[in-house]
Amino acid sequence: MMYRWIKQTLCCTLLAGSLGAQALTTVELKPFRALYESRLDVGVPLSLEAVRELRQQTDGQWILTSTAEAVIAGIEESSRFTLEQLQVVPQQYQYHHKVFGKRRDAILNFDWPNARVTNDVDNKPWQMDIPAGTLDKLAYQMQIRLDLPSGKTRLSYPVADGGSLKQYDFEVLGSESVSTPAGTFNAIKVQRDRGDDAKRETYIWFAPELDYMIIKLYQVESDGKEAQLLLKKVESP
């Protein structure tokens, strides 16, 4: 149970970081580096540091990287993508994690001319057909960043996740004042919609005055354990 919780908490940390970039009202993306701090309830105190970076390659493609580190665990993720009329188009996704010395690695390569993705999980590759608009587990988070400034209140994305195609749904709940190490902001609160019977809850707050940067993430697991992530600092690359 402890292994599963730490893994989920690290993923929660990475989710917040990847949403926490400078928001867009045009197609222009800007490189960034964002730092976050977290407080976790895992039976014993656990602190994590998360770093997110966005950079552009010479060929015009973008790479979003995310790392979260603790003494006993760590996760690294990256998504290489292009941008077409405010639509994120993933090209490759990588995921690497270790908890208590155990490792798991996954690489997804998107083949859009043939509408399929190759999943290579722990050196065991296989292929899956995908519809247009499919995102990876970091790319969909960048798509939220692009969609929120438009005023949408319901967000839904097909995501290649865990060897299958899943639908990720979000609902905009309203505005709240939120205090963080980076300051106090009037933020838009967004909830991950997992259905009426879901036992897990995830809430994310975005600050319009910071161009819709994510400033807080709060998650409750099915066993009641909590995780909270707060924006600490945003740096230029």
What would you say this structure looks like, in words?
- This protein is mostly beta strands.
- The chain has a single domain, classed as Beta Barrel (YmcC-like fold).
- It has two helices and 14 strands; from the N terminus they run αββββββββαββββββ.
- β12 (201-207) and β13 (213-220) form a beta hairpin.
Keywords:
disordered N terminus; 2 helices; 14 strands; 237 residues; 14-stranded antiparallel β-sheet; YmcC-like fold; mainly beta; globular
Under CATH, the topology can be stated as YmcC-like fold
Sheet of most strands: 14 strands, antiparallel
In helices, the fraction of residues equals 10-25%
Poorly predicted sequence stretches spanning 5 or more consecutive residues: 1-7, 16-27
Secondary structure elements and their pairing?
Blueprint lengths: L1 H18 L12 E10 L3 E12 L5 E8 L3 E12 L2 E13 L2 E10 L4 E6 L2 E6 L9 H9 L6 E8 L2 E17 L2 E11 L7 E7 L5 E8 L5 E10 L2
Antiparallel strand pairs: 1-2, 1-14, 2-3, 3-4, 4-5, 5-6, 6-7, 7-8, 9-10, 10-11, 11-12, 12-13, 13-14
